[in-house]
Amino acid sequence: MNIVDWFDPYDIKHMEAYKYLERNGYxxxxxxxxxxxxxxxxxxxLVGAMARCWLKHVEAKAKxxxxxxxxxxxxxxxxxxxxxxxxxxxxxxxxxxxxxxxxMQHRTLQQGWxxxxxxxxxxxxxxxxxxxxxxxxxxxxxTLAKRLLPAINETAIPFI
Length: 160
Known about the structure:
Blueprint: H1 3-6, H2 12-24, H3 42-85, H4 91-104, H5 107-130, H6 139-153
Helix pairs in contact: 5-6
């Protein structure tokens, strides 16, 4: 077997051995099995394999960063909504704005709102009741959520 086929840049032990090679100019003793052959240009191929591994890592990190950004952006939007809810006497304005905006949205988005906001909230409040994580300020919401949960659980809310 050739070292290019044997060496795995995703294997941490292989990468540690490569770092050892860089520091000392030779592989660690007994690292490469006797059955593995070193071709004349093995260094180029190993560096290429490590570069491909690094690119996959960078691409995966970029996707994770996008997800973290999306979560942070969504959290900020939800916090802004809660800031509005926190203004006493603002309930009518919030209800009116919600009714107007929701009515103008595509029906698929209305369904997504219901699934992602309403159903998620019901599940969260029902869990708060089950885990005794409530007090008088949200007890009614938690109790109602528990009563709604069976209907929610037996009804699929698909993405269409």
